[in-house]
Amino acid sequence: MEELRKRAGNLLESGQVRVVIGYGEGTGKRVRAVFIQDAGQADCLIFDERCRQNLALYLTRHEVKKLGKPAIVASLPALRAILQLAGECQIAENDIVVLGIGEDGSMLDLPDFAAIEKHVASTVREPDPAEKAQFDLVLAMSLEERWKYWQEQLSRCFKCYACRQACPMCYCSRCTVECNQPQWIPVPSHDLGNLEWHVMRAMHLAGRCVDCGDCSRACPLDIPLYLLNRFLIMDIESRFNQRAGTTAALDYALSTFHPDDKDDFIR
Amino acid sequence: MEMETRLLKKEALAGLIEKINAAGRKIYAPVRVGDRDEFRPVDSASRIDLGCIQTTQSAKEVLFPRVERILSFSRRDGAMETADPDLSILPEVVLFGLHPCDAAAIGSLRAIFTWDTQDAFFTARLERLAVIGLSCAEADEYCFCTSVGLGPGATDGSDILLTRLASGDFLAEILTEKGRELAALSPGLFLSPPAGADKSSALAVVEASFTREQVRDRAKAGFDEDALWDGQALRCLGCGACAYVCPTCACFDIQDEGTTNRGVRLRCWDSCGFAAFTLHTSGHNPREEQGPRWRQRIMHKFSYMPERQNVFGCVGCGRCSRACPVDMNIKEHLIALLEARS
Fold this sequence. Notes:
- The complex is a heterodimer.
- Chain A is 37% helix and 8% strand.
- Chain A is α/β, with parallel strands linked by helices.
- In chain A, strand 1 (19-25) and strand 2 (31-36) form a beta hairpin.
- The mean pLDDT of chain A is 94.
- By secondary structure, chain B is α+β, with helices and mostly antiparallel strands.
- Helices cover 29% and strands 22% of the residues of chain B.
- Chain B is built from ten helices and twelve strands.
- In chain B, the strands form two sheets. In chain B, strands 3-2-6-7-8-9-1-10 form an eight-stranded mixed β-sheet. Chain B has a four-stranded antiparallel β-sheet with strand order 5-4-12-11, with no helix packed on it.
- The A-B interface holds A 26-28, 30-35, 53, 57-58, 62-64, 158-162, 164-166, 174, 178, 183, 186-190, 193, 214, 217-218, 220-222 and B 34-36, 56-57, 66-67, 141, 230, 233-235, 237-241, 243-245, 253, 255, 257, 266, 268-269, 271, 274, 276, 289-291, 321, 323, 325-327, 329, 332.
């Protein structure tokens, strides 16, 4: 923590960055994103097991962008998101400084995207056992059971869009649900509206989701949205041998094609 | 009506629920759902979570559903015909176990939905609603009812307010005509209270941090303090979780669904935290950033509503703070607002 604070303070003091996006104490036992703009305040930065929010989400927010060049505290999920955002041309290498945090909580030296790629490629984070158990449970269901499961889960959704707003990859300036000429996705949070929204959300993240799980953690109604994303990650991996957030080069299944693709519909 | 105080024995609760159900009224009460509590229809007292500090969602859906059909339309022989929903079929509803903050929130909603126009849908539901409130024996760090003029035993909005005494029995304050009607369904259950029965010792302690009048005056003076609002809102995601769990947030959007020949008009919840909430057709957005949207949320509750409707739009239930994925804690931010120099 001392090293993190020192590095953050130095970056601000030397003018290399204008803001450090990190974690600080919140209310009660909660932590929250903090935006340090003054070296003297770097001491409020923390990092511990509570610091799970994927801060990469703030890199594309215009309120944060206008503060100037950022440094960002990033453990594995945020590092993946940074690579994916780079691959989608949302951030450039020289636009950010990454204060990487290793799986053991130590500071990493990640001067460029290549270093992030190397770290991500060599780091494994086991999925949460409860989440994995739920995933396996749903995977083992028959199609009818699964349909019933999702109808029940999604019927709770009141469309607050916390899942979208918490997602570092949901940076569209105008989401499809807000396009109303024509209205592609029904606005009301009735069963059809909820189903269409969540299917669209998952599909738009297919091959792009970095599996941080923030959509589910943000959901005030505890809908296990990570399951939808993980099914698609599994599909993309098995069919295209691709995983989002591993490279800063544009290369993801639903947005690129190869001239030698075995299917001809795309040509 | 003069308030009457009665005693409801703990073992009489089941009978009360039964009688209300038998009278054809639908009862919603806090029920444990997974790791949370939510208001659900109940037909027996055993399902009710009497120890619930706060449900994740408020009970406002009983009066203001998240999606509500307000009109049907169809074209016949070239002419458009419209039909209003039949509100006479709405059930009589009893909200049981509503804490005093939530009961008071009904007054805020009523003020909004009857301000200029008498909203037919809301008022039809309100006419059919009776509230059996439950004083708070426990509060958590997010509760701040005493800072907004209420309290763990406040009676506003309840038709009957129950307070659970140390014995487990309930002190029942019968507050309104609707309350008297409910009690009359099972007169044998409402007994004379023991001499000197007093609810005050059975109430949670919630320290007041400020008064709502202080917030009103400070908010009004601070409208142009962009740095304050922007700073507080920097981490805000711009989702609608706070508005949708809030018992008094009442913004809605109108959507038509169907074809040009047949369809329905729906009223759906909306939130001032959304970027598109104030987006004009021209493309101009008067609230381009989250700071002004956050300011709007606070100003609406503490300045505009008292000014226009003579009620406050916050009852201190703390739901928004609990539900917020990024710890936008309203109590903390209101304290910071009061402490910031104007």
